[in-house]
Design a protein that fits this description.
The chain is mainly α. The chain is built from eleven helices and no strands. It has one domain: Orthogonal Bundle (Penicillin binding protein transpeptidase fold), CATH 1.10.3810.
Length: 232
């Protein structure tokens, strides 16, 4: 029994040391990113782009769809979702790989504008620190607006204006409810859910997003079915 406790203590100390090391490296990555480009400069750089779209120009259906499928607790957390992270850790252990991140919209914004898309623990830690920094300096609506303007929609469309024009031949404020819901589902896997290349998969993803909107009370089942059956 004593031997078992000693082994357990060594394992705990070892894992704690690794955790502290990763935490330190992640914090340094976060600080270095800010030293290179301060947050206010990064935000101004994004907002100064010619095709930047303000939140007021986007349909409510689209905004609700994004929140439903990406981070339904967005307006209630302070940058990270502990429950989502815990669920992701459990699922990753089950899958024996880094398959799920549990990132909030704020964390994804941090990743989009400061870090790489590479899945690694150090970057995830840096992403958390940056998310807290963003939440301390910007309102939820400002964060959502910045996030939507830094998403990749596939097919070479790096902003929502290009995505709306490229996929539907419309400006953002003109897209239908069905197009809103389809568009919200694309960034999860742009090459897979590209409606030009994979219309069947895009429709399947559209239904997944609509189901989330029903689950979180943005649509009734009847409204969702009507939207999903709208003719393009």
């Amino acid at each position: 029994m004593k031997l078992f406790l000693k082994i357990l203590l060594v394992i705990v100390l070892f894992l704690s040391s690794i955790g502290i090391l990763i935490l330190g490296k992640g914090y340094n990555m976060y600080k270095e990113a800010l030293e290179k480009t301060p947050l206010d400069e990064k935000v101004e750089e994004i907002k100064s782009k010619e095709k930047y779209v303000e939140l007021s120009e986007l349909p409510n259906t689209y905004l609700n769809a994004v929140i439903s499928v990406e981070d339904h607790g967005f307006y209630n957390h302070s940058g990270i979702d502990v429950i989502a992270i815990g669920r992701a850790i459990i699922n990753n252990i089950k899958a024996m790989k880094f398959a799920e991140g549990g990132s909030t919209i704020t964390q994804q914004l941090a990743k989009n504008v400061y870090f790489t898309q590479k899945k690694e623990l150090t970057r995830k830690v840096a992403e958390v620190f940056m998310a807290w920094k963003i939440e301390d300096n910007y309102s939820k609506d400002e964060i959502l607006e910045l996030y939507i303007n830094t998403m990749y929609f596939g097919n070479g469309y790096y902003n929502i204006m290009d995505a709306c024009e490229g996929y539907f031949g419309k400006s953002p404020h003109e897209i239908t409810d069905g197009e809103c819901i389809m568009l919200a589902g694309i960034p999860n896997a742009p090459s897979v859910y590209n409606p030009k290349e994979n219309p069947k998969l895009a429709k399947q993803r559209q239904r997944q997003v609509a189901d989330k909107m029903v689950e979180y009370g943005y649509l009734s089942e009847e409204e969702a079915e009507k939207i999903l059956n709208e003719k393009s």
